[in-house]
Amino acid sequence: MPSSRRTSSRRVVRPATVIGGLFLLLVGLALLAIPFLEAPGHAEGARTELEAARDSLSAGDVDAAEASVQSARRHADQVQDAMQGFGGDVWSLIPVVGEPVSDVRHLGNALDHLTTAAEVAVQAWPAVNGDEATLFADRGVDLPTLETLVGAVDEASTALDAAQLELGEVRDSSLVVGTRLGDARDEATDVLSPVAATARRAKAITDVLPDLFGARGERTYLLALLNPSEQRFSGGAPLTVVPMEVTDGRLSMGEARDTTDPELFRVGRWERVDGNPFHNGKLRLSTSTYAPDWSVSGEELLRGWERRTDQEVDGLVVVDIVALADMLRITGPVETEGYGTLDAGNFTATLIGDYDRYPDNAARKDLNRAIVPLFAERLLDPGDGLEKIESLRTSARARHFAMWMRDPDLQSAVADIGLAGELSDTRHDYLAVFNQNTNRSKADFWQQRTVASEVRLREDGSAQVRLTISVHNDSPPYVQPFPDPRDGTYVTKWNGMTLGVFLPEGAELTGATAAGTPQGTRLFDYYGRPYKLLRLTLSPGTTREAVLEYDVPAAAVAPGDGTLTYRLDVTPQGLVVPQAVTVDVRWPEGYEVGDLPEGWTRTGPGRAAYADPGLVTQPSFSITGSATAP
């Protein structure tokens, strides 16, 4: 009988064949990995070149910046070629290895977008800044250059947003390299986030700049020069104003006028801004800006101007002497009749701090009227465009510069970039102390103010606060041949004021004193924010204190998970000598304070303190304390 056993058709795989196949696979993967392994070096090279480009632009060396960006592009392309090519595709399919390859691809994409933003910035830079800049020229704005700038900002902002999205896709759970990739992602995010946010704010304003400069029809604005030696809650008193017309980017200035001009100085009535508690009865232009927000005070000033002159305007630009001095730091000194050379160093003191040396008020007003159009002319002169813009932004942070536009889209853009001169809308702890001059003097020039807040947090997020406001009148000796009138003159050294303390939402006042005298606990309302008024009179060389004690219902966020996050916003007043601020915060017993923002120090268990000897920004802080295990 034939055999029933069948011969197997299965091939016998020899060990040598398996080993040989694996060897060839590993060799192939190794060859594919060569560019992959070089990617980190190229990524670091791109980063180094982008940082060099940033530094070169800051130094004004556009050629060096362009060379660095070109080098960064070569490095970024190498990273993309390595990670997005066939080798990266193969490695991404391998278990365990594939996930970090995907993460590195996202990092490479982010680097590519960031390099694109840098290329756009370097290309646009010469038109905005430098000796050959064309954005500002002939007392106006070159609209074709402006349109190019609008497109550049839009492209750069889009690239930065795309980079952020790519970084958001990077995980840190991969074996071996996950932590390193997560650290790289976090480091890049820390650098990119504020840049992207700035670009979005810049886009908001550049999108409306053509309208602002009359590209689509004539615009009329009122420019007001503020004197910070005579304060209002909004800033310095508006003592000189001039109308401006802008058409197709070209600026024409009207007649500069003092608000003491008989026509403008008249007391009168106009329709009050709805809800403004500081508009009571008849006003002058010079007393129309008592509200701390320029959206309110600015509109009051415009309504008063229109009532007096019958000239309709589209918006208001306010700038004080301190901001003008900083502009001179960029544009150079000015020569004046009677006052000589005025530069950034002596401008403020000469114009508003030395009435004894320059007692001729008529000559001073003549100078003020000449200075107001000078601001617009210097701002729109060719060159140093970015430095001028940065100067205005810095002045706005310290509330020495602000804008109010009646067009909602324009005003929204102005607010987005911090030029609106508004109070914070925080619902948590808040510090905002202003004063208004009450003896018609210029003695606020010498005012030195310190605000000290002691905060005691409770576990439910509420807090007890003790706020001490110390004001020193550091005026020089009185030198006139007649007795100091103490009121109504440029030369008096007495300083009368009403302090306006704008408190956190829902605050309840439990005690208040001014110069040791009880003031009662009644609060007023300013568009939902409570405030307290306190009167002080300071003779030369004296210091007076006001103290408020109050409860804040939501000084901290208390989610009930054992954490307590204290949140604080601070708004300065545009003083000649910036206000000093100290804050001392204590968490409940048993809490430990986590990471602290810049400017804060740990002063004990569950305790942190902040100090700024001269507040010229509008900071916002968030600090978390955690309950320790029992």
UniProtKB/TrEMBL annotation:
InterPro entries: DUF4012 (IPR025101)
One Pfam family of this chain: DUF4012
Protein name: DUF4012 domain-containing protein
